[in-house]
Amino acid sequence: MMNQVYAGPPLSRQLDLCADAVAEVRAGRSLTDVLAGVAPALRPGVQALSFQVLRGLGGALAARTRLAPRPPPARVDALLLTALALLWPSPRPAYADHTLVDQAVAAARRRTPASAGFVNAVLRRFVRERDALVAALQAVPSARWNHPDWWIAQLHTDWPDAAPAILEAANGHPPMTLRVNARRSTAAAYVERLQKAGLAASVVSGVPGVTHAVHLEQPCPVGDLPGFADGDVSVQDVSAQRAVPLLLGTGLPPGARVLDACAAPGGKTAHLLECGELDVLALDQDARRMDRVRESLARLGLTATCAVGDAGQPAAWWDGRPFDAILLDAPCSASGIVRRHPDIRWLRRPDDLPSLARTQSRLLDAMWPLLRPGGRLLYATCSVFRAEGQDVIDAFLQRQPPGAAARDPASPGHLLPLAENPATFAAEANPAAADGFFYALLAKI
């Protein structure tokens, strides 16, 4: 945009705050937590910039290493990486090169005045040599794919043929998918409401078990969705909407006891209650996140028993009555939702996977005795790594006595975030790829 007009805060101020966010993420802090501390008036712009920078951080790191092999002080480095990521070639650059360089230098004068000349020199050299630099850096995996080297290597180990497509999908913008409240309406009827409100949308088809999903052509604030405040609709990805139909199968009798372990933020708890007259216990060990479950249920006009507790320590909260069905959406790397949370790739470490797998196994072992004979347990993670999916289930089944547990053939296994994945979509599928998930449905014999 050669004639950018700033209707809001100066770009230099937003770059300054974005650089702070990038520095915090690189230090191990979640972007969600960082953005919560940004003034509301500045937050949307800073979030948009931060998402773009974190999606391009691998290339920016590689470029800075070429242009300035000795890393500058952390505050300067964060700003430099922010500007380099935003200057990376894009089909639709948000700002003209000279605008970004000028505003980054202005931010540098505010942050560390002595660094302004250095920042100016590095950025101008990058612009001059950009084509050659970017071409050369395609040989660097972390620059080409904008993920840590270990993450890239693990995906190539787990999914040799699909790894490049998974990495490319992770750098895209996620679709906004809605779940229409089945107690209130149908997907087709809600699409008509959206169209009357001037929002283009379509019914999601071809996804096994998913009957109330709607795809928005363009994301919008939830306040713009007709009936959102009244509980007519929720935001939930297509892959996440598969959980409840898988667990319920052909249905449970009214009053059946269902445990939603690790329930926050409550999307699947609400979906359970929208689909049947069930006695649902929503459990999470984080009291603040459990408040979000209660708020979601209140908006939707639904009722569940909400409890704060560790799913791995049932003696502290279980009343001894077995459950007919259990949903265990276990803590995981969240590697399947990195396009929605681009900081995740930079927060995770290689040793997180075995640590998380141990937690997942511990929770499975704790949940299984709470399930009645003939009951069903759905194990879920929003991960694309086999270590948190198939490997965990294989090990769990090996720990069970012969004939005590069986994996239901309806289990889809790993749902990779690819539109052409046959385990995720049928031929007439919605054009937008869903998030990466793993589902294993287990029956207690």
Cα end-to-end separation: 63 Å
Strand content: 5-15%
Outline type: globular
Number of strands: 12
The figure for the number of domains is 3
CATH 4th-level superfamily of the largest domain: Vaccinia Virus protein VP39
CATH topology of the largest domain: Rossmann fold
- What's the average pLDDT? 94
CATH class of the largest domain: Alpha Beta
Note poorly predicted spans.
1-6, 425-431
Largest sheet: 8 strands, mixed
- The CATH architecture of the largest domain is 3-Layer(aba) Sandwich
| Helix percentage | 40-55%
Order of secondary-structure elements: HHHHHHHHHHEHEEEHEHEHEEHHEHEEE
Task: Indicate the radius of gyration in whole angstroms.
Answer: 24 Å
- Per DSSP, the total helix count is 17
Structural class: alpha/beta
3D architecture notes:
The chain has helices spanning 11-26, 31-36, 43-55, 57-67, 74-87, 97-111, 116-137, 141-145, 149-158, 163-170, 187-196, 243-248, 267-275, 287-300, 344-347, 352-367, 390-399; strands at 176-180, 201-203, 213-216, 233-235, 257-261, 279-284, 305-308, 323-329, 371-381, 405-407, 413-415, 437-444. The strands form two sheets. Strands 5, 6, 7, 8, 9, 10, 11 and 12 form an eight-stranded mixed beta sheet that branches. Strands 2-3-1-4 form a four-stranded antiparallel beta sheet, covered by helices on one side. Helix content is 42%, strand content 14%. The chain folds into three domains: 11-146, N-utilizing Substance Protein B Homolog, Chain A, CATH 1.10.940; 176-235, Alpha-Beta Plaits, CATH 3.30.70.1170; 249-444, Vaccinia Virus protein VP39 (Rossmann fold, 3-Layer(aba) Sandwich), CATH 3.40.50.150. It has 17 helices and twelve strands. The chain is an alpha/beta fold and 445 residues long.
